[in-house]
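Standup notes
- DV: blocked on the single-chain target, sequence here:
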Amino acid sequence: CTVRLAGHGHLDHQRLVAVSDDAAGALAEALLARLGRDRAWYVDLEQLPVDDPVTAALHARAGTALLTPGDPTPQLDWPLERDEHTWARKKARQNARRAERALDASGARWQVDRLADPDELHAALPATLRLRRARELALSRADELADPRRAQAHTRLVADLAGRGQVELWRLVRDGELIAYLLAAHDHDRVRLLDHRMRPGAEEHSPSDVLFGQALRRWHADPAITGVDFGRGRTGLKQRLSNHEVPTQRLQLWSHPRLAAAHLGGRQRAEQARQHLRDTRDASPAAQRLVRAVRRAQTSTGPSRPRGTASWGASPPGRDTSGSTPTASGGGVRAG
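- DV (later): unblocked, structure below
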């Protein structure tokens, strides 16, 4: 039996909620007692807040456990006193101005628009999904929203947030063609990036610099917004725009030490095989075409959850309930 939180692989922040240290200990004991009914099991909890009491209690009580750093989430925090220079670093501001001047000089008709009306968002969303799919295929990546169920869940989430006035879609259109988009949600005093893609081949226009430049300036002008959460993982764009990161941690538990050894050894061999395939792909145009064909097939069929996988509850999409203190985390496999 494999157990993960419901937002595994999708949400930027997750946690098992407890109101006190005593409650955290009781929750950990109850979860381990339930797992103990099965002969063999594996628990994989990702994007947990650092210094979370439930995570610490599970790690301390489980016989075989591994606690490692998770994906950091780049953040942009704004000061209370703001001026025209505080919406981003100097380099990011220069990049945005340079990209807009280059679009003007190209002679193309371009515009950035912002949609927040529920009906307008609903009508515009399919075009963003098509652009996203094209971008992922161009990069030889599987698009998780190619799965119709996940696409529907994404659409329902956006519709729900739009009905509450908590989401907005920004689009860069050049000569009538959608070049890039960003989808962001408002969570109390913070804006959280939900999705962002650019059209393949549009890199020369620096669409992300244009789009984020205009969006950040608008959000920065609202004193009720304290900053932006760019979501899990590091990219060049996020590192240019953010000014700090929120760390997370990953907790893995196994029913037996031998199961952990087999699991981790198999993962290492699989990563070595993937790296070999990446090296082959990068060196061979024929291999690149094969990878794109496989990705197209994945896009047609879509991923599904493996059999034997259970999910525990998770924090709502787009909401950070961690309240974590940024500290380092890590550790090795501990076998009891």
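- Follow-up: The longest strand covers residues 177-187.
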